[in-house]
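Exercise 7.
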Amino acid sequence: MSDTSLRSPQGVRSAFRAWRADRPFVGGLLLALGGAEILLTMKVSLKVVLHIGMQGLAGYLLPALMVVLGLLIMFNPTQRLFYSITGVLLTLGTWLTSNLGGFFIGLLLGVIGSCMTFGWLPDQEPRVSRRKRRKAARAAAVPGTAGEQPA
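Solution. The predicted structure, written as tokens, is:
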């Protein structure tokens, strides 16, 4: 790809789209957003979980590791299985250490993102929309041969 094609907005968009297609981008993004949401809810004045000693440290450590794992999933997809399993375990650990997993929102984002990453297959063909499949089926059907009997 030439340098001039990356300068146009369509060139940047297509380059990002190609980069995103080669990795479990949405799963990593959801895991990172879940960790960020849990970190933000740690500052809420309503304390659902008492933070004393190591539990207080774990309340900040687990969501920070969730953010790091989400970024690692996006930028190093070869180790996605390890990152996704570790991510779901850390996310479930925030249930006890971080205000019920960020009041369930961060918990759900982290679990869904980890599961999406675990299920992502790099060699899978991109899905074709139903509209495109129907259009291809109509184009493949030759008109005039539907009612004929074979000889």
